[in-house]
Amino acid sequence: MNYIKHLNAVFQQFSKDSRLNPTHISLYMSLFQFWNINRFPEEFYINRDEVMGIAKIGGIATYHKCIKNLNDWKYLCYLPSYNIFKGSKVRMFIFKTGSEQALNKPETGFEQALIHNTNINKQIENINKLKLPKNKNEAVAFFKMNNWPEIEALKFYNHYKSIDWKLGGKIKITDWHATASNWMLKANEIKKNEPGSQNKDNLKTSKIKDYDQPL
Description:
Elements: H1 3-16, H2 22-37, E1 44-46, H3 48-55, H4 60-72, E2 76-79, E3 88-92, H5 98-103, H6 110-130, H7 136-145, H8 150-162, E4 166-167, E5 171-172, H9 176-192
Antiparallel strand pairs: 1-3, 2-3, 4-5
Helix pairs in contact: 2-3, 2-4, 7-8
Region (Disordered): 190-215
Protein name: Transcriptional regulator
């Protein structure tokens, strides 16, 4: 992506679009900066407070109105997140100048939206693939980082690899770190209840005792 050509083209578009105000342009340039920092990926996560700070937008309502406008007017695609632990995502549409733009009109029209949706699905698939360990060594490294036994890392990796990284044989794992944490919770629980474990509650017994008898 040639960002100089892109900026020239998008500013040409700005000059023709009477719907835009300075806040829209400031917000767009703020998002462009984050796109640039992330090396121009197809889509990227954003932090609302950081974006508002760079764009000098003081009100949350103004921010949401402007980013929705930019989405509706095909300057970008905004994918809001309703999870407080996960940021929203943005995909910037690519603009071109002169004859390049004439040859690539679908990139800013309805067909661009269709292409965009296809690319989003591919990108999500790629992101999910990255959320699985590449090999046993990566699983072992993660377990060691958390001071968990290496043998558990190997058991974890071999078990889920054998069932194609699915929970219950149906649901594809999208965050193997969280799955590994749950694995260790269960492993520790099993260990705690093993016969002879120091953590076992020895006050519990299935035998009926006569406590009137001397020791």
